[in-house]
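Hi Prof. W.,

I finally got the Probable phosphoglycerate mutase prediction working! I wasn't sure whether to trim anything, so I left the full sequence exactly as given:
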Amino acid sequence: MTADRLVLWRHGQTDWNTSGRFQGQADIPLNAVGLDQARDAARVLATLEPAQLWSSDLTRTRQTSAALTEVTGLEPRLDERLREVNVGTWEGLRGPEIDAVEPEAWAALRRGEDVRRSPTGETVSEVGERVARALAEIAEQAPDGATVVVTTHGLAGRAGLCRLLGLPFDLWRTFGSLDNCAWSVLHRHRAGGYWRVAEHNVRPLAVRETIS
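And this is what came out:
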């Protein structure tokens, strides 16, 4: 059994998104805009007739998933491997604050290097590998030909997508932003069995503009 379509859906807006704080795995809830975004997006995603709904176990992804539960009846299955990158001691900090305490790491991050987010955090390549493993298992256990919605996070979604496609790590940035409550659609090639990107960073027109 294997799904034919994976929909990677980023959570809605939080106050830390709008203030530019590093969120990581801090358990921050959606704000009022984020809740509206989730409802707007859920109405569109429901038309894809998903058979399963999976989610990161953090509050902002569970709240986003709950909007799809309301219109489809699907209960989310939680998987902590779908969490955002662990940023360790950078949680809650803005870029200039990180630059002040770890200038070398911040400069390397700005250059696009695979930097560990603080001494206790993760690298993007580590996140990509764990999310890709989760996505592969989720797809393999799904009913044959099914559509599965996976609620995750911005960086985690892009890095996991890259590794699931078998692309080199350094290409993960080429996919561009995955905005709040936007999604990417992956289709499995029936003959070859590989995944390919059909759509990226899709949002219904009603979804409000956000700071990513």
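The beta strands are 5-10, 52-55, 77-78, 147-152, 183-188, 195-202. Does that look reasonable to you?

Thanks,
D.
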